[in-house]
């Protein structure tokens, strides 16, 4: 049970000054007697009546003290099991309350206030500010915060994740805002900074090392579980939560970052400098800025680059969305290079597609030229497949199409009309009708249709009835009937045999 400072002060006055017993204090203040015991023990004031009332635990106190001295964090339940094995007959609850008085209290650690020189150090960390929904996608709203240790100037920028690309972009934006950078940057043991750590042996993220070499600063992770070493950025994040964030209204991420930039340049700069409260942060930064490291001539490339495998559809999947690309690049491995506002798709060094970046999910972001080109090639492909089927069923159609092309006719419509006649009359009848049309030098589907109808009427056959076929493979199947001329050659011999029999 937690109590306020007023009750704690009363307990510490009633017991040693007024000589009240623990039970009396508990009844008068309306608290449990264990709370009174705890307050007195933490203040180094054992109960007055403790020495006057023997307890069954007294025999085991030397063992308890020795064990807790050797293992200070040993749990009361484990210690109770150990004394039970040695003959202790009390209950676990009573033992736990008794042990609370004898457990050694760790000595609070004192910290020395750290002083830094102007331009020497900055501290970096992320802060989580809830979630943001873009369309159907939910993102973590992360605040990238950098503070200069001397002047306490704050840089604040919000991103939709804490990935490496945004981590480096935050650095570059801060350096640009300050027109310089400190010599040392302190970090917590972030995954973007430290890949592996064993004591003082640290394996840095190679991209961070490359970034630090480009800007010529030293990345320095703080010790494990030593947050006090970067307390300035921790207080800066708390200041952002208390001063900037409450009741903040914003339309989108760009609007939020514009407000954050204005707040950093105005309100946060005019507050008193914690190092010297006689001046403002703005004045302290004016002293520090000339001592910052100069920026290099070229910024570090912070684009996100990932390899993507393109399937049979001309789309590249990136950040939960599909971006279109030319149909000539399917079944390949390409590279996606993305900035916060743009997505580019590269084949080697050649940029083959550029799109505005979307932070929604499940969308198809398309360039109309890509879709149009694919539609044209698909239409041509369908026409070529139809011509192949037509020529396979009726070889004379090749000559008809060639003559039609010489006349400037539309081969697509001619092919479609001949395919319909093929489905209605069959390949053998179509072949004969095309041959007749070529003899008459009329290479057109209407001439073929008239020839087919005349042949049908000469044979006194009914009009063909189209039978719909749902199976695509069956539709494209070409069945060429066997030539029956070989059977006609057998007919005279059969008639001779019949005549001989009659005689």
Task: Give a structural overview.
- This protein has four domains: 5-102, no CATH class; 121-291, Ribonuclease H-like superfamily/Ribonuclease H (Nucleotidyltransferase, domain 5, 2-Layer Sandwich), CATH 3.30.420.10; 304-366, no CATH class; 373-475, no CATH class.
- The protein is 44% helix and 17% strand.
- It has helices at residues 5-14, 22-29, 33-42, 61-70, 76-85, 92-102, 164-178, 206-215, 231-244, 253-265, 281-288, 368-393, 397-406, 411-425, 427-439, 445-458, 472-475, 485-502; strands at 121-134, 137-148, 154-159, 184-187, 194-198, 201-204, 218-221, 304-309, 315-318, 321-324, 333-338, 342-347, 350-356, 364-365.
- The chain has a five-stranded mixed beta sheet, sandwiched between helices. A four-stranded antiparallel beta sheet has the order 8-11-12-13, with no helix packed on it. It has a three-stranded mixed beta sheet with strand order 9-10-14, with no helix packed on it.
- Helix 15 (427-439) crosses helix 16.
- The mean pLDDT is 85.
Key phrases:
alpha+beta, 14 strands, elongated, 17% strand, Nucleotidyltransferase, domain 5, 503 residues, 44% helix, 4-stranded antiparallel sheet
How many domain modules? 4
The CATH architecture of the largest domain can be given as 2-Layer Sandwich
Note the overall shape. Answer: elongated
User: What structural class do you assign from the helix and strand content?
Assistant: alpha+beta
Low-confidence region ranges: none
> Looking at this structure, what is the CATH superfamily of the largest domain?
Ribonuclease H-like superfamily/Ribonuclease H
Rounded radius of gyration (Å): 44 Å
Number of strands: 14
Strand content: 15-25%
**Main β-sheet description:** 5 strands, mixed
User: Major sheet: order of its strands?
Assistant: 3-2-1-4-7
What is the C-level CATH assignment of the largest domain? Alpha Beta
Mean pLDDT over the residues: 85
State the CATH topology of the largest domain.
Answer: Nucleotidyltransferase, domain 5
Helix content: 40-55%
Number of alpha- plus pi-helical segments: 18
Give the N-to-C terminal Cα separation.
Answer: 131 Å
């Amino acid at each position: 049970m937690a109590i306020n400072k007023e009750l704690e002060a009363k307990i510490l006055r009633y017991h040693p000054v007024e000589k009240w017993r623990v039970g009396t204090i508990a009844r008068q203040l309306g608290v449990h007697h264990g709370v009174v015991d705890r307050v007195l023990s933490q203040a180094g004031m054992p109960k007055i009546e403790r020495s006057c009332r023997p307890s069954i635990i007294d025999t085991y106190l030397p063992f308890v003290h020795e064990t807790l001295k050797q293992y200070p964090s040993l749990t009361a339940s484990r210690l109770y099991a150990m004394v039970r094995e040695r003959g202790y007959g009390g209950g676990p609850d009573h033992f736990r309350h008794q042990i609370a008085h004898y457990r050694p209290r760790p000595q609070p650690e004192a910290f020395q206030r750290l002083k830094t020189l102007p331009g020497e150090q900055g501290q970096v960390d992320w802060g989580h500010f809830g979630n943001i929904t873009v369309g159907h996608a939910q993102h973590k709203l992360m605040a990238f915060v950098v503070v200069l240790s001397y002047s306490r100037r704050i840089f604040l920028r919000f991103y939709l994740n804490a990935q490496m690309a945004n981590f480096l972009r935050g650095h570059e934006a801060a350096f640009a805002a300050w027109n310089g950078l400190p010599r040392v940057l302190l970090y917590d043991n972030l995954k973007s900074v430290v890949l592996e750590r064993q004591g003082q042996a640290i394996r840095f993220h190679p991209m961070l090392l490359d970034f630090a070499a480009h800007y010529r600063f030293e990345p320095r992770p703080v010790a494990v579980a030593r947050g006090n070493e970067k307390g300035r950025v921790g207080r800066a994040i708390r200041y952002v939560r208390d001063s900037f964030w409450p009741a903040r209204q914003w339309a989108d991420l760009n609007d939020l970052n514009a407000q954050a930039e204005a707040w950093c340049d105005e309100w946060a700069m005019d507050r008193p400098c914690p190092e010297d409260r006689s001046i403002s942060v703005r004045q302290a930064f004016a002293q520090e800025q000339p001592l910052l490291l100069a920026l290099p001539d070229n910024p570090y490339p912070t684009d996100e680059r990932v390899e993507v495998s393109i399937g049979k559809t001309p789309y590249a999947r990136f950040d939960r969305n599909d971006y279109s690309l030319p149909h000539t690049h399917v079944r390949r491995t390409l590279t996606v290079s993305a900035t916060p506002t743009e997505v580019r798709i590269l084949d080697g060094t050649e940029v083959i597609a550029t799109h505005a970046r979307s932070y929604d999910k499940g969308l198809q972001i398309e360039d109309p030229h890509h879709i149009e080109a694919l539609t044209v090639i698909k239409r041509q492909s369908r026409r070529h497949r139809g011509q192949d089927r037509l020529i396979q069923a009726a070889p004379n159609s090749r000559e008809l199409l060639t003559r039609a092309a010489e006349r400037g006719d539309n081969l697509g419509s001619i092919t479609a009309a001949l395919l319909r006649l093929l489905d209605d009359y069959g390949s053998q009848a179509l072949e004969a009708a095309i041959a007749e049309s070529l003899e008459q030098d009329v290479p057109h589907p209407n001439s073929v249709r008239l020839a087919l109808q005349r042949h049908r009427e000469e044979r006194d056959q009914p009009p063909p009835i189209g039978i719909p076929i749902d199976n695509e493979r069956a539709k494209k199947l070409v069945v060429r009937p066997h030539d029956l001329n070989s059977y006609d050659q057998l007919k005279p011999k059969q008639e001779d045999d019949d005549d001989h029999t009659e005689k």
